[in-house]
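Hi R.,

Here's the input for the FE2/S2 (inorganic) cluster complex you asked about:
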Amino acid sequence: MERRSFLKLSAKLGITLAGFLTLPFFVSLKPGGIKEKRIEYFFLASLEEMPRKDVKKFELILEQSTSDQRLKNMNVYIVKTLDGWIALSPVCTHLGCMVNYNRIKKEFICPCHGGRYNTHGEVIVGPPSMPLTRLPLKVEDQSVFVGIKV
Ligand code: FES
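And here is the predicted structure with FE2/S2 (inorganic) cluster in place:
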């Protein structure tokens, strides 16, 4: 094969390969290509079970509440504040380990790399740079519901 033919063939292959590699990106730009997540509320507890002070861990039962196979049961921390309650995801924002609440220190501590958060989910000690994710809460008929993106 001559050098000129080889270069032409290489250029055609390169363009074709680039097309295949960028196709998923352009498909995702098409309207409807990216599916927007919506928030769905799941029962957490009755109002009576909510903490009157400090922090309480709950298991959010998702598997029996929906037919969506992707949703697994998960833990949620409910923190009693002066203004009411906040719900925090236990997923560390560094690399996704599950944080534990330390009642003595009043901190969420990540067992993986020592990240620490205060009771509002704000980072006290890195490596995490982002706060714990707050989950929306709503109260209806003496029941508390937590919002999850589905
Ligand atoms: Fe939590 Fe690294 S995963 S500090």
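One thing worth noting: The first strand starts at residue 39 and ends at 46.

Cheers,
M.
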